[in-house]
Amino acid sequence: MSKFEPFEPRPRIAAAVSGGADSMALALLSDRWVRSRGGAVLAVVIDHALRPESGAEAAQTMHRLAVRGIQAKLLRVAGLTHGPALAERARAARYSLLHEACRTEGILHLLVGHHAADQAETVLLRRQSGSGPAGLAAMAAVVEHQGLRILRPLLNVSPAELRDLLWRQGVGWVEDPSNADLRATRPRLRAELATCKDPEQEIGALCAAARQAARVRAQREAELANLLADRAAIYPEGFAVLSPGAIDPDALGTLIQAISGAIFPPRLRAVAALASAPHPATCGGVRMAPAGRLGPGLLLVREEAAMASPIRAVPGQVWDGRFRLQRDARVPKDAQIGALGDHAANFRRLSHLPASVLRTLPALRVGNMLAAVPHLLYPDPESCSALRLDFHPQRAAAGAPFFPA
To answer: In whole angstroms, what is the distance from residue 154 CA to residue 49 CA?
Structure first.
């Protein structure tokens, strides 16, 4: 845990616990570490409710934690059903619950139990998909997301070591049959690794390759962050101005990704020609146009046609992958968040912003009535202070660099 320092005095941390061997070992180890610091761990047990026996297994896990004196909270995923992309949907639902639990408890650090074999499988997956150096870095040891640090302290620890710990401590665990379902990709890779002449050596080699790729990725991301700090100005209204001249394609792709609110950057092939000679164009859900009165260079603004539809205004909700409504917002009943759109014409004389930016600003409406445009302080500053919509793209243009395991 020392590589994740600093922590606050007497830290309070959370551990994601499924009840399996890896997460049970994580709970024991994190409890031991945090007690030595005078702090406490909260084990967040997630029941996906996908199997009839999952409820009983979750209760058994809660009991096992209680016997060890570890505080635990049980959360159940609602509405998750079998079908396409189940693993991705389950992961999204799980992390949503974990984030909310940490926010409610005022916890800044969430530990998850990915271990060396998980990392090795990720490297193999990325190789099969033709990933470049960034993808081959596999899982980062630290990810910062929405005010939470997600820590993976076991990435260099083998699953055999974790199970040995549980045996020695006399702690049981749950075996999830889906982990042995060879119809899924990861179980197949796991089975292939197990047939190697020396599985532990193979896992170690794959993890070493990931660490080397991670160091390269971290250095590259730091270079791109410095370049963007020098070449681009990003504004809280969700647009950017790029200074004139050619730019590294990766830097431009990262900037486009941030302005679009996308999870992934645009394809490098689509960005390369633009980067060598930046010019007005549309790419990756972002419109590039002359910056005009904002200065020399190009304006990068969200492509209007690509924006998300209006959504119900719920505190903490993110609209269009870009703007997050503050968690303590006092939202009018039945309000929705959507683009300002045609209502932008009412503010042309009141704002210095280009029309293309005004139209993409987030606005709150009740029915067809405009209730608030926080970035324009409409209807008044006091009302808008309780309805702040922060530019919070899913991937920052220059966030924290990749953290190697």
So the answer is: 26
Number of residues that this document lists for the chain: 405
Give residue for tokens 């919509």.
389
Which two structure tokens, joined as six digits, stand for 72? 């635990």
Residues 6+ apart with CB under 8 A from 99: 110, 145, 146, 148
Q: 50-59, 69-78, 181-190, 348-357: which has the minimum mean pLDDT?
A: 181-190
pTM of the model: 0.81
Judged against a pLDDT cut of 90, whether residue 151 lies above it is answered with yes
For residue 213, what is the enclosing H or E element?
helix 199-231
The domain 2-212 is classified under which CATH number: 1.20.1290.10, 3.40.50.620, 3.40.1260.10, 3.30.465.10? 3.40.50.620
Per DSSP, which regions of 200-305 are E strands? 232-234, 240-242, 281-283, 286-290, 298-302
Omega of the bond leading into 379 within 30 degrees of 0 (cis): yes
- E strands, 59-104, are 71-76
Residue 29: pLDDT band with limits 50, 70, 90: very high
Longest pairwise C-alpha distance within the chain = 73
Give the CA dihedral 224, 225, 229, 233, nearest 10 degrees.
Answer: 90
Closest CA to 138 of 189, 184, 99: 189
